[in-house]
Amino acid sequence: MTRRQKDLHRVLSLFLVLWMVETVSGARGPFTGTHMSSPFSASDVKQTPTADCREVCGLNVSDRCDFIRTNPDCRSEGGYLNYLEGIFCHLPPNLLPLAVTLYAFWLLYLFLVLGVTAAKFFCPNLSAICTLLKLSHNVAVSFCPGPGWLGDRAVWLVAQERPGRAGGPGAGVLVTTVVAGGIAILRPFTAASRPFLRDIVFYMVAVFLTFTALYLGRVTLAWALGYLGLYVFYVLTVVVCTWLYRWQRRRSLVYSMPGTPEMLSDSEVEPVSSNSYDYSEEYRPLLFYQETTAQILARALNPLDYRKWRNKSVYWRALKVLKLPVEFLLLLTVPVVDPDKDDGNWKRPLNCLHLVISPLVLALTLQSGAYGIYEIGGLFPVWAVVVIVGTALAAVTFFATSNSEPPRFHWLFAFLGFLTSALWINAAATEVVNILRSLGVVFRLSNTVLGLTLLAWGNSIGDAFSDFTLARQGYPRMAFAACFGGIILSILHGAALPSALVARPPRAAGLEPDGLLVWVLAGALGLSLVCSLVSVPLQCFQLNKVYGFCLLLFYVTFLVVALLTEFGVIHLKSV
């Protein structure tokens, strides 16, 4: 097998795993638009109107619970808890301030869950996959944008029930400005020139296709197939450009001179700096002894380092106490592979448990557990089959391996850990979106204002945590590339495939642009891309804090203009 064939095999292997997960989990999703989703949702698809869920606050107290349970506009698209029922069915009206306060604290804790999962489990496994498959980080994020893309396909179909929301383009602008700008502020860096230009040009083409659909007022099968063709062309471009770049490096003298500007602009390796002190050498025992299986399991499941605990501040300790339950649960359910360690972070008893628990978590988090509780033949639930198969694999692995040496297939745990952590992030982000939507109902925020603010922020929170964590850990290029490159994959899953299903001949999916606001949103997204396309090359791809703050200012200006348009302050003169 030639080197070119090996490179193609690695890319397709990673893409195949992600495609399988998306195919299984894409029947429904909470995200109406992030950089891991299509830039525009189909929230304007024509549908028979239903009663607005915000009207519940104007009803009699005795009628509110029935209204919440019977009105389709009040149903949550996924998640495990029904927050509106908790407010209007299980608590008296005088305890509404208490319910809002509890929801706010729960929301903050979910942010903590997202941060821990992204920093200690999702990002390390993603980095390990890049190392194991010998993929550059820029190529990896083009096919593996992050956790938020898991539910994108159904947004175009589910949004038919939620007319008037601007969460899709609102979050698209947020990601290309706030998230991208935040990365530049957290860790100024030099962007990879060719991957950046490639991704942003394809992104702009996708936005142009969306403009076309809005102008025509419908989604045709030809339009959906055009999106599919765009993604196929994008995949071929990424693979061919990667081959050409590596071929040029091998044939050029620049390959042996890593300090030159050419290597710096397109370097696929980012130095990782760490200021944390390594206590392991100081406390390493003088005499070597063999740990028992029980000791290995106990140490692997212990999220607290007592040596660090003694030297930390009270604030750090209080925050650590809040993190302990989350970290313990994640250690128990998510394997982490570390190629930098001699043993690859192999923990035989814990990894064997992962073979049982991680697939069970996957089954119970896909579609909020809908797949896991499905009964095969009406008798045997899927989760029970998963447990039986996982137990058999764990038993074989336990007796066929040793504590001291990892098996040859240990690298597969990186994929298992990546998928499990991505679904944990997706589940937590789903709860965030549902809480924010419930608060929007309580405070009677309009659907458009809700989509521009709370839902757009909530929809982006899982991916923003992942990108900011990557930047802090020394991978700003990888995080920045995800803001632009990952959108192409999400357009395929979040827009093209559902639209192809809806727009099968002889019918087409109708779009009803919501007046001037839709064009403000679309124009802002296109303008943010043009600004980055022009300004980044002018800075010689050196992205600093000034560039980041300019993007933040752009988003604030966009948000003000969009809200003024929604409230009628800015409007078109009637002819």
TrEMBL record:
The stretch of residues making up the signal peptide is 1-26
Extract the GO molecular function terms from the UniProt entry.
calcium:sodium antiporter activity involved in regulation of cardiac muscle cell membrane potential; protein homodimerization activity
Pfam families recorded for this chain? Na_Ca_ex
How is this protein situated with respect to the membrane?
A: Multi-pass membrane protein
The GO biological-process annotations, alphabetized, read as: calcium export from the mitochondrion; glucose homeostasis; mitochondrial calcium ion homeostasis; regulation of cytosolic calcium ion concentration; regulation of insulin secretion; regulation of lymphocyte chemotaxis; regulation of store-operated calcium entry
State a GO cellular component annotated for this protein.
plasma membrane
Which InterPro entries does its entry note? CaCA_antiporter, NaCa_Exmemb, NCX_ion-bd_dom_sf
What keywords are annotated for this sequence in UniProt? Antiport, Calcium, Calcium transport, Ion transport, Membrane, Signal, Transmembrane, Transmembrane helix, Transport
Reading the lineage from the top rank, the first entry is Eukaryota
Sodium/calcium exchanger membrane region domain span: 414-563
Keyword ATP-binding on entry: no
Which subcellular locations apply to this protein? Answer: Membrane
Q: Where are the transmembrane segments?
A: 103-123, 171-189, 196-216, 222-245, 352-374, 380-399, 411-429, 435-457, 478-496, 516-534, 546-570
Question: Can you name this protein?
Answer: Solute carrier family 8 member B1
